[in-house]
Amino acid sequence: MTTLATLAQRNRAFAATHPGQRPGLEPSLKTVILCCADHRADPAHVLGLRPNEAIVIRNPGGRVTPDFLRNLGVLATIARVEHLSSGFELILMQHTDCGLSHLSPETHAEVLAPFLGVGPAELGAKNLSDPMEAVRSDIALLRQNPFVPPR
Ligand SMILES: [Zn+2]
Question: What pTM was estimated for this model as a whole?
Fold first, then answer.
């Protein structure tokens, strides 16, 4: 069986066990999670997320990028238009041994700089090889964004 056929079969089984369910737009935990695309760091597994609990946005590294900030702006607009309650929390989840840390700012600047929204000379400040510092610098970047909740 192909991967696609396997996943389609799983989807049919899911749909059969959730007939007629159509959850609202607001996730029950009122939370947005930004995390790495790495299959080893899936928030459904490592945080025990269940369906409809959180909005999950994934990218390589779980980094605050210009694309992520645009996504956040669109989500905030949807929340406003749909009159969703305020008070969402934002969780930034990065991890050790991230594939992004295997890229060198010197060797892979042409990929990293536009992804992170900085010039090649600023890549060092993105702390690609230190996940703790990467989180700190991304939180500092988030604090400058009007769509980010205060916590
Ligand atoms: Zn990663």
Answer: 0.91
